Amino acid sequence: MDRRWRTIGVLAGGLFAVNMVARLITRFGFDNDDAAADRVTLVMFVVIGLTLAVVAFRWGRVRPLAAWAADVAVVVLIAMALTVLVGPLLVGYSPFADGAGTFFAQIWLYLLATGLGALGGYLVATALGLDYRSQQLKRYAEVKAAKPRRVVRR
Q1: What angle do CA 108, 87, 52 make, to 5 degrees?
Q2: In whole angstroms, what is the distance from residue 58 CA to residue 79 CA?
Q3: pLDDT tens digits, one per residue of 118-130
Q4: Fewest C-beta in 10 Å: which of 28, 89, 108, 153?
């Protein structure tokens, strides 16, 4: 159990670190350029989505969907809370400085990027037949095919 929470914490910290790097690049590199800041934000969301796609692909191969989906949901919630509430404070802004619309837009965009990433990774694993359930069904079929048919004598 300790290893599970450590993995969740490290992954959430990694997603938050990606956000912090994007915020620092935007703050110090493109302070007054909104178009460049939007591009950096887009790259940040793509990196976060790809990270969760890789995690979903890897965890989907060795664990049932219900087990790893709960862990990914916890990771996303922790990382999102840190990104939306703590991230702006670390670069000198208030989380609500741009208004409630921007605050909730950040939440929806984060959920969209993480949801698409995790779903995409799992769908790739499923399409390739590498997910946990497909592997279970494959092993079951192999075991059933390997047993000879029992002949019933009367």
Answers
A1: 55
A2: 20
A3: 999 999 999 998 8
A4: 153
95: helix, coil or strand?
Answer: coil
The residue type at 110: Y
Residue 69 CA to residue 136 CA, distance in Å, equals 18
Q: What is the DSSP string of 69-93?
A: HHHHHHHHHHHHHIIIIIHHHHTT-
The residue to which tokens 């862990």 are assigned: 71
Closest Cα partner for 113 from 85, 63, 72? 72
Q: Is pLDDT of 69 > 70?
A: yes
CA 144 to chain centre: 36
Tokens of 9: 């914490």
List CB contacts of 116: < 8 A, sequence separation 6 or more: 49
Predicted TM-score (pTM) of the model is 0.83
For the chain, give the longest Cα–Cα distance. Answer: 89
Q: How far is CA 78 from CA 29, 75, 83, 84, in A?
A: 27, 5, 9, 10
Give the integer Cα–Cα distance in Å for 117 and 53: 4
